[in-house]
Design goal:
Layout lengths: L12 E4 L4 H13 L4 E4 L9 H6 L7 E4 L2 E4 L1 H12 L8 H16 L2 H12 L9 H10 L11 H11 L10 H10 L9 H4 L8 H10 L5 H11 L4 H10 L3
Parallel strand pairs: 1-2
Antiparallel strand pairs: 1-3, 3-4
Length: 249
């Protein structure tokens, strides 16, 4: 007689902070797909500098996933891993759609993240900026519209063109790419921090982006994943107003 013990697997842990754009995207994707994870609060720039946090993995960023000792950092890698493991609809198996998802994710880091570096970081994470002049340079890269040479256009005109071709970033259905991008753009809308208005960026100039944002806000998991951000906004209104007054953007 052979006895086989059943070992209960610990829940997947995600070290996260809901005001962080990448962490919020992971939280939203898990909520959308009803994937149960244990979210553990970790403050960027503080908790991830502790010896304990840094000992887990050489890339000590937030969010970070711990799946029974398998440690994975970077929000896009985490969402792709969970998408594979749990067959997420947000991470379609069609290789052409996945190709578009991966294309966007590679583009995101050097492009869409400039939204946060230009508008969010000067107020809330100045430690991430290389120089005081960086936000103005990033803002210029957000807006420049070289329609005659599209590959040199700024971030927002490029996204507007993407969404002029299809309803969602990667085709006819929402994917983790949409959630990742919304977490950069959505925080800047007037319904949250109002950073576009503070920097004198008229989001109405990008009707496809505006309509896409409204569709993203209807997706499952949006409310729960954005509650902390919504609660945070009134507490920092004074800081945003000061940024609007003093901004050289």
């Amino acid at each position: 007689f052979e006895f086989q013990a059943k070992v209960a697997m610990a829940p997947i842990k995600i070290y996260s902070m809901p005001i962080s754009q990448p962490a919020r995207a992971v939280s939203w994707a898990c909520a959308y797909e009803k994937t149960e994870v244990e979210e553990i609060f970790a403050m960027p720039g503080k908790d991830n500098k502790s010896p304990e946090y840094r000992s887990r993995h050489s890339i000590a960023t937030i969010p970070q996933l711990d799946d029974n000792g398998y440690i994975l950092s970077e929000s896009h890698a985490i969402m792709c891993y969970l998408g594979d493991k749990f067959n997420w609809s947000l991470y379609p198996k069609d290789p052409k759609v996945r190709g578009r998802v991966h294309e966007y994710m590679n583009w995101h880091h050097s492009n869409a993240r400039k939204i946060t570096f230009a508008l969010f970081c000067p107020i809330f994470r100045p430690d991430l900026l290389a120089s005081p002049d960086a936000p103005a340079l990033f803002k210029k890269e957000l807006l420049q519209d070289n329609s005659h040479v599209p590959q040199t256009s700024g971030v927002l005109p490029t996204i507007e063109r993407m969404l002029s071709q299809q309803k969602w970033l990667c085709g006819d259905v929402p994917t983790v790419a949409d959630l990742s991008l919304y977490c950069e753009i959505g925080q800047c809308l007037d319904k949250f921090l109002g950073l576009f208005s503070a920097a004198k960026i008229d989001i109405n100039s990008y009707p496809k982006i505006k309509a896409w944002c409204e569709e993203c806000e209807k997706l499952p998991g949006f409310q729960s994943s954005h509650k902390a951000l919504a609660d945070f906004c009134p507490t920092v209104k004074k800081q945003v107003d000061e940024f609007k007054t003093q901004s050289k953007l």
